[in-house]
Amino acid sequence: AAAVVFPMTLYSHNISLLALASGASTVCVATVILSTIGSMVSELAEHGVADGVTAFGSLARWPSFFASDLSPLAGIAVMLPIQNAMSPDHQIALFPKLFTGMITFISLLYLSYGLVGYLAYGAALHNTIVSSLPHSAYGDFVRVMLALNVTLTYPIQFVPAISILDEAFGIAKDCKVTASRKAILLRAGACGGVLAIASMIGADTVGAVVSLVGATMIVYLNLLIPPLLEMQKEYAIQNPTAERETKDYYIAGVVAAGYL
Known about the structure:
mainly alpha; globular
């Protein structure tokens, strides 16, 4: 796997190429989502709501559930290269709408997908739905599409982290990676580190790792949200005549209060 994704990381600054990879991965993940939703709906139609389904699920699994559910927040960082590639005018006028629309769509998708899956399988499903599909031509096709999606998404997810490492190691933003020995070695080391960690934890602990990623995101949010709210308070004090009757202003306050 590392041999496949490493060459792709050498083009981490090529937004056009990453956009093609993102488009292809979107097609793959859309195929997986539609296929598994079809399986879940078929299960519901054939057997009805699974036994043991309750309004609140298993309370003992709530901590792991919320941590796992928050792990996709790590993917928000892939929007940073998109914002950086926009002109200043587009960053102000278009990016907030793009960001809000995508987050809303993905949140609704997660909610509906998880709800249908829980109704269809209940607490009996201890692995991913894709892993639970039968070993048939259909099941293998869905697993291949998921593998392609993960492979194509890796270099996109890689961009924010490698941008930080490039800056830390003194690699210029406009550096041509394939012509820089330091940049190539840095990417090889990053991919090797991910491979080493994956080899040590094993495939059976993926769920725990996802929960750990989500829990880490909660820690960072706890560190970031309070100072952001403090900055907003200071701005409100220094600008008493600023507009405070817009929908976005109140939505931001409600979201922040709900999180806290």
